[in-house]
Every structure is written in C-alpha cells, then in structure tokens.
Automatic annotation (TrEMBL):
Keyword terms: Carbohydrate metabolism, Cytoplasm, Hydrolase, Magnesium, Metal-binding
Gene Ontology MF, one: fructose 1,6-bisphosphate 1-phosphatase activity
GO biological process, one term: sucrose biosynthetic process
Residues noted as binding Mg(2+) 2 in the record, renumbered to the chain: D115, D118, E280
Catalysed reactions, as listed in the record: beta-D-fructose 1,6-bisphosphate + H2O = beta-D-fructose 6-phosphate + phosphate
UniProt remark on cofactor binding: Binds 2 magnesium ions per subunit.
Residues annotated as domain Fructose-1-6-bisphosphatase class I N-terminal: 5-197
Pathway it works in: Carbohydrate biosynthesis; Calvin cycle
GO CC annotation: cytosol
Name by which UniProt lists this protein: Fructose-1,6-bisphosphatase class 1
Source taxonomy: Bacteria, Pseudomonadati, Pseudomonadota, Gammaproteobacteria, Vibrionales
Superkingdom assignment: Bacteria
Length: 338
C-alpha cells in the first residue's frame, strides 16, 4: 500500500487541522478502534467458540439478543468507560442510557450512542455485520451526571459518526464533518490502514436495497418507486439491480461505493419503520451527507428530526441523491399509506 497511513496517524493529522482541538475526540476514536479490534477477533472465530446464537433474552426492542450482541455491547462500553472523554453511552442493547459516575467520566464532554452489533441475526450464517456509533458534545454541565437531553439531540449536532463492517475484510469508516474516510484492518499488523480517503457516493445509482417481502404493506409511493426501478428503460439504466443483505451496514457500504439507495419504510410490523433514529439513522445520515448523498424519512431530512425518545424508530431512505429524491417525489405524489 504505497501511502500506508494508519487510522491513528490519520486522526492526529486531521486533528492538527483544528488548532484548538484538545485531542479528546481523537482519543475517543482511538478507544472505538480498540473495541472494534476486540469484537472483530471474536466475530472471526464465532463458528469455533461458544459465542454464536441467542442468549435467551430480549432487548428493549423485543428482539432476541445474540451472544455477540452482548459481547460487543460490553466491549464498547468498557472501552468508553476506561477513557476520560465519555460521560455516558446509549445503546440498542441497553433499556436506558448508561451514565459513568467516576469523576474521570463525569468531567468528560462527549456522549456516544451505538448499535454495537447491527444485523447480528446474520452472524450464525456468516453474513457481514457491523457496529454503528454516533458522538455528541454533552449539553449538560461538565462535572454533573449526564441527562436524557445529552442523548436526545438532533443528528445535525453530531461531532462524529462511523461504522465498523465485519465483512470479507474489516473496515472502519468515520467522519468528523470533514469528509468520510475508510480504513481497512490488517490483522497481521493489528492496525487499520487508510484505504478509502474522502469517499463520495455517485449522485445516481442502479442498486436498490429493500426487503420486498414487505411489499404489500409498503406506502403507495414506495410501491410506485419499486415498480419504477423494475421498468425496462435501458436509456435510464433501468431495470436497476436489487441487492438486500439484511445488514444495514453492509448494504449501506456497498451502495456508498457503487451508488444506490437503501430503504426501510413503514411496514405492517414496523408502522414507524424498523431502524432507530439515534444510533442507526442519524450516524448513517451524517456519513452519507458527508459522502455527497442524502438521507430522509421519506419527507424530512433525518438530521433535522428532533428526537423524543431513546429508541424511537423512523422510516429510512438513504443513498444517492437523485435516487432518494426520486422516491420522495413518488411518496409526495402518492401519499396513501398503502
Ligand atoms: P428485515 C438488522 O436487524 C437491521 O436492523 C438492519 O441491519 C437490516 O437492514 C434490517 O434490520 C433488516 O430487517 O426486516 O428486512 O429483516
């Protein structure tokens, strides 16, 4: 790799672009990097050790928790608590936000929200899964116990966001608001190396990602868009290709590189959509906008939605600008629920 640069070097280099940066965010990203390596090690041997399958409990979403869900949750929480930059963590796997009450953490200025292992039901069938994280500056006073308001901030207040994709290779992709950059893990060296600097998504794409098994209960506008994707119009590169892995991070990452749209609209089972605003949609929306794409709930910019509860769900449309705008126009033209 000609200009091999590690994630750590890149973070410090970019931090120097901000002369007033204290280095706390850089150190926080370093702790995420460490936790990602630990989780990656367990995922890569999941078939060999007793860490796959369900634990027999459910999370607040009512979803069966996988052993690796809880393992990843514990490792990322521990990594955050061990550093003095984070005063609290909200997680898909935790009913309430976890506040760290050691002085070390109470004086910290960031909170982090995360889905420690998204798509975990795919682990047992060896399909890629991911970690998603979102970082905010706290709004409560330094030195106090963080409050709900620290975690219920709109996505446009994020200071950083990213994901780890545990796939054919393991990558960490993040933004601090100055572009989106991808790093590929080299297990022989134990480092993440810069492999995709300043990623940009094509404004048009030919890939649409949606669980068409839910078609019958999709909103009318979404049904119209799916048929639009399937029309035989070679001059417009249609029909598009349908690709749906069932793992948000994997579908998102492929569409980011190739162009495309990921959609999780409201369905019969999830009338408000399935994906969670705070630790799935907001971080992915921040990343996508940094890559030149857009993200909405079908009508409104995801990053401008004012959260009301920790685990709230929203319909999610994210990807190439022209594709998201196209489905939004169908939703506007055909407002019927389904
Ligand atoms: P469905 C995984 O549970 C997840 O949150 C996303 O990673 C994925 O895109 C979606 O749900 C899959 O949901 O209902 O199509 O199985």
């Amino acid at each position: 790799m000609p200009n091999m640069k590690t994630l750590g070097e890149f973070i410090v280099e970019k931090q120097n672009d901000f002369p007033h940066a204290s280095g706390d965010l850089s150190s926080l990203l370093g702790s995420i990097k460490l936790a990602a390596k630990i989780v990656n090690r367990e995922i890569n041997k999941a078939g060999l050790v007793d860490i796959t399958g369900a634990v027999g409990s459910e999370n607040v979403q009512g979803e069966e928790q996988q052993k690796l869900d809880l393992y990843a949750n514990d490792k990322f929480k521990a990594a955050m608590e061990a550093r003095d930059q984070v005063c609290g963590v909200a997680s898909e796997e935790e009913d309430e936000a976890v506040t760290f009450n050691k002085d070390l953490n109470r004086n910290a200025k960031y909170v982090i929200l995360m889905d420690p292992l998204d798509g975990s039901s795919n682990i047992d069938v060896n399909v890629s899964v991911g970690t998603i994280f979102s970082i905010y500056r706290r709004v409560s006073p330094i030195g106090t116990t963080p409050t709900q308001e620290d975690f219920l901030q709109p996505g446009n207040q994020q200071v950083a966001a990213g994901y780890v994709i545990y796939g054919s290779s393991t990558m960490l992709v993040y933004t601090t608001g100055n572009g989106i950059h991808g790093f590929t893990y080299d297990p022989s060296l134990g480092v993440f190396c810069l492999s995709h600097e300043s990623m940009q998504i094509p404004e048009d794409g030919q890939i649409y990602s949606i669980n068409e098994g839910n078609y019958i209960r999709f909103p009318q506008g979404v049904k119209k868009y799916i048929k639009f994707c399937q029309e035989d119009v070679p001059a417009d590169n249609r029909p598009y290709t349908s690709r749906y892995i069932g793992s948000l991070v994997s579908d998102f990452h492929r569409n980011l590189l190739k162009g495309g749209i990921y959609m999780y609209p409201s369905t019969a089972m999830y009338p408000n959509g399935k994906l969670r605003l705070l630790y799935e949609c907001n971080p992915m929306a921040f990343l996508m906008e940094q890559a030149g794409g857009i993200a909405s709930d079908g009508k409104n910019r995801i990053l401008d939605i004012i959260p009301t509860e920790l685990h709230q769900r929203v319909p999610f449309f994210v990807g190439s600008t022209n594709m998201v705008k196209q489905v939004e126009s169908f939703i506007e033209e055909y407002p019927e629920q389904y």
